[in-house]
Amino acid sequence: MRFFATVGGSASDTNIEAKVLASSPIMEAIGNAKTTRNDNSSRFGKYIQIGFDKRYHIIGANMRTYLLEKSRVVFQAEDERNYHIFYQLCASASLPEFKDLGLTCAEDFFYTSQGGDTSIDGVDDADDLEKTRHAFTLLGKRLEKPFANDFWYFL
Predict the structure, then answer these.
(1) CATH superfamily entry for domain 2-154
(2) SUPFAM superfamilies, alphabetically (predicted)?
């Protein structure tokens, strides 16, 4: 997607490319996890249709997801992690907007610690949550307490 956005240039002042690219950190946080082979493995399928105008500028995108590996929520093999969003939220537990969620470090929860190591070398989960939140902001959404409550309930 970044290649198409770079090659295509900007079609309008609304910065459609930024919005299209903003979907990546969100999809990675919610749909990717650490496996024994890959620290950022996509655990779902996605089909992305990118719309272009006659001058090859991106004018929009549509994403369809399928086959989310739901079993990962309740089980991780040794040296694997659950979905990144859980670790991002735990790493940011001290933020005022998450105070009432009762979050602590990922090691304190069975579903984030059963694979063993809850960290990934070179990854700052708190920083990644900021990137995820920024992506939501670009898309006109906010990652805050109500969303977090709904997200935990959903999973």
Answers:
(1) Kinesin motor domain (3.40.850.10)
(2) P-loop containing nucleoside triphosphate hydrolases
